[in-house]
């Protein structure tokens, strides 16, 4: 198999309202990976402009997501943190990949269909080729591992197809690796506090549906108090959670923060009323999130420092992408 050095790449869009789902579902896994691998964590601001956006809000959200990465423990000395638009290799490779990927491949992307709905004719071309830019993000660094949620698996598979077709078409076997998705499991799929069958989302109209990383202790406690539950006490066995999505979600959040299995949490709380359990859950979540929120506020008070970190990360990223892009230009036949 390939001899590519292990390298982790992942990204998150800069949009407001970072929440518990982003933390448990993505950022927390990134932290673990940084112990073991060389990692690049990108704030994908170019993906954010595929839909209508407000330029001021975009700049603010880029700094907020960067602050959230760092406050959560992603260490800019260990991992590369930068915003996508600062490294032109992403746009350049995306264009070349637009000429490698087939229209039929993109027509199969389920996320575009979901986002566009009946309005696909009115969507930007950028939204349509969004997954091609994502492939360029990954492959500009020849990244081998891509931690993503379930909903992005198809996009990583597209990146694999693009890598393979590029290698074949230009006769450069193994030039690009076949990036592997690292799917962050269902244990960390955080659901809405108002509906245990819908994902926790920054676009949900109800702020009570999510715990934002910047919520203060009172707000967190209040949101858990209001969270939807069923009338039964907590069950004895994990299997009984299957039919109780809201209970399952709250137990999962507790388990994730306590770093225990769900059964171990039930062993502690079986037979308890939700009011009791929700109190313990709030306490745990507040204890874990408040240092992150505090550090985020501190960082956001010094935007120049955030920008300096992003500049430095971009410089490091450019240095990795530069030799890859030089080779890409040569094999494609561009004179330089
Ligand atoms: N599309 C991803 C998401 O919405 C974000 C993303 C962009 C990404 N480029 C990436 C994730 C490259 C992993 C690797 O979550």
How would you portray this structure in words?
This protein is mostly helical and 336 residues long. The chain folds into two domains: 7-182 and 303-332, Rossmann fold; 207-297, Orthogonal Bundle (Tyrosyl-Transfer RNA Synthetase), CATH 1.10.240. The chain contains 14 helices and five strands. The strands form two sheets. Strands 1-2-3 form a three-stranded parallel sheet. The two termini are 32 Å apart. The model has no long low-confidence stretch (mean pLDDT 95).
Number of domains: 2
CATH-defined architecture of the largest domain: 3-Layer(aba) Sandwich
Low-pLDDT segments: none
Radius of gyration: 21 Å
| Corresponding CATH superfamily of the largest domain | HUPs
Largest sheet: 3 strands, parallel
Number of helices: 14
Q: Which fold does the CATH topology of the largest domain refer to?
A: Rossmann fold
Q: What order do the SSEs take from the amino end to the carboxyl end, as H and E?
A: EHEHHEHHHHHEHEHHHHH
Cofactors, ions, other ligands: tryptophan
Number of distinct beta strands: 5
Distance between the termini: 32 Å
Supply the CATH class of the largest domain. Alpha Beta
Q: Averaging pLDDT over every residue, what do you get? A: 95
Strand order in the largest sheet? 1-2-3
Going by helix content, strand content and strand pairing, the class is: mainly alpha
What is the approximate shape?
Answer: globular
Q: How would you describe this structure in keywords?
A:
336 residues, mainly alpha, Rossmann fold, Tyrosyl-Transfer RNA Synthetase, two-stranded parallel sheet, 14 helices, 5 strands, binds tryptophan
């Amino acid at each position: 198999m390939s001899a590519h050095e292990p390298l982790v790449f992942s990204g998150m869009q800069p949009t407001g309202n970072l929440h518990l789902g982003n933390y448990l579902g993505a950022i927390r896994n990134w932290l673990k990976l940084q112990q073991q691998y060389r990692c690049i964590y990108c704030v994908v601001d170019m993906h954010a402009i595929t839909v209508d956006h407000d330029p001021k809000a975009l700049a603010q959200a880029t700094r907020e997501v960067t602050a959230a990465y760092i406050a959560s423990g992603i260490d800019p000395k260990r991992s590369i943190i930068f915003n996508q638009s600062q490294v032109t290799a992403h746009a350049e490779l995306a264009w070349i990949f637009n000429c490698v990927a087939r229209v039929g491949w993109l027509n199969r992307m389920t996320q575009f269909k979901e986002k566009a709905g009946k309005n696909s004719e009115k969507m930007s071309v950028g939204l349509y080729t969004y997954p091609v830019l994502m492939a360029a993000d990954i492959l500009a660094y020849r990244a081998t591992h891509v931690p993503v949620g379930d909903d992005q698996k198809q996009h990583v598979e597209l990146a694999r197809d693009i890598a393979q077709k590029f290698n074949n078409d230009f006769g450069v076997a193994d030039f690009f690796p076949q990036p592997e998705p690292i799917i962050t499991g269902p244990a960390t799929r955080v659901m809405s506090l108002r509906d245990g069958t819908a994902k926790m989302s920054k676009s949900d109209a109800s702020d009570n549906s999510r715990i934002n990383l910047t919520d203060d202790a009172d707000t967190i406690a209040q949101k858990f108090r209001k969270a939807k539950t069923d009338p039964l006490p907590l069950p004895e066995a994990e299997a009984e959670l299957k039919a109780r999505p809201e209970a399952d979600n709250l137990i999962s959040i507790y388990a994730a923060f306590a770093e225990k299995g769900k059964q171990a949490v039930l062993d502690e709380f079986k037979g308890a009323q939700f009011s009791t359990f929700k109190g313990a859950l709030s306490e745990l979540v507040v204890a874990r999130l408040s240092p992150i929120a505090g550090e985020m506020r501190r960082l956001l008070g010094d935007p120049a420092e955030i920008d300096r970190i992003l500049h430095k990360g971009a410089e490091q990223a450019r240095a990795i992408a530069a030799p890859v892009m030089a080779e890409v230009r040569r094999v494609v036949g561009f004179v330089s």
